[in-house]
Design brief:
46% of the residues lie in helices and 17% in strands. By secondary structure, it is of the alpha/beta class. The protein has a 5-stranded parallel β-sheet, sandwiched between helices. The two termini are 32 Å apart. Fructose -6-phosphate binds at residues 56-59, 103-105, 108, 111, 155-156, 240, 244, 361-362. Keywords: Aminotransferase, Cytoplasm, Glutamine amidotransferase, Repeat, Transferase.
Length: 365
Amino acid sequence: EKGGYEHFMAKEIMEQPKAFRDTVFPRIQDGRVVLDDLSLTPDYLREVDKLYIIACGSSYHVGMTAKYTLERLLRKPVEVTLASEFRYCDPIVTDKTLALVISQSGETIDTLAAMREAKRLGARVLSIVNVVGSTIARESDDVLYTWAGPEIAVATTKAYSTQLALVYLIGLYCARALETIRAADYDAIVEELLLIPTKLEAILENREDIQYFASLYFNHPSIFFIGRNIDYAVGLEGSLKLKEISYIHSEAYAAGELKHGTISLIEPGTLVVALAGYRPLFEKTMSNVVEVKSRGADVLGLTTQSRGDEIQKTVDHAILIPDTHPMLLPSLEVVPLQLFAYYVALMRGCDIDKPRNLAKSVTVE
Ligand code: F6R
């Protein structure tokens, strides 16, 4: 049932090109995003004055990426909240709020309760769910399913990737309805979306490189992930993956925030994973890499092939991924980080599919 892999997590990481294809390709017809199952009309979308993204854990990290993506595409404010916080923060929700609820299982109790609260306050709920017929799916006004297939490993991989894919589709769909995107940009992004599965396959083929980096660093006591904008959002997920299955302490920081405190933790030999894939902020992030290097950090850089020569000048090792549209970059960046977490946990002899203290579906508050 593990398809020849040692762990479900490895199998699920490797399934991502297919999961992405299954989630995205049927929803693109003649170069347009078609979401037949969605009842959001252009009139309704124009009325929406705020999006509220509600989720937990990795699904929340998808929400963090979605904030950057959807604000850019829709020019509407997007607030992202942990479901466990939303419930108790007296949230500002009206009937002009669109709540985007993200959950693999569709049963996470905090997310479900937050969703009910959002509905009670008048929001319309659009959910992104993997498990068909789950409670969150049933109680939403609209649901878009990720066609990731069953996810067994506690640490999510393919569900995260397909949630992200749906965020792009929702963004493109709504941007077109709202006319907040130029036709040429829309076409360029759709074209690139269709290339993502092949690029994912290329990344997965090179997994031995990541295994080698893991062998260098699997004994590090503490690891930092830094990046800006969507690179930062992906860093949050990379850090969570690592700590939940390898039990290594790690932190994700917005690169520009380091000097406001955390840089005091950087000392000779600290590993910093620097995400510098997002083209518009490459130089900014690299200036932070120089700062941590000068304090003795080991830096594992992650960027796209076109920046390969540049990044190699500064970092100790570089992971290079294919170039794509900057908006879609998280889909490619997250995979080496999943693999890194996996191999580190493997080398540390951890129980990868069932990390201690964690459950796949959290149905208690
Ligand atoms: C991390 C992980 C968890 C879940 C979180 C939400 O790898 O799997 O953080 O993302 O418990 O679960 P769902 O998406 O089922 O609501």
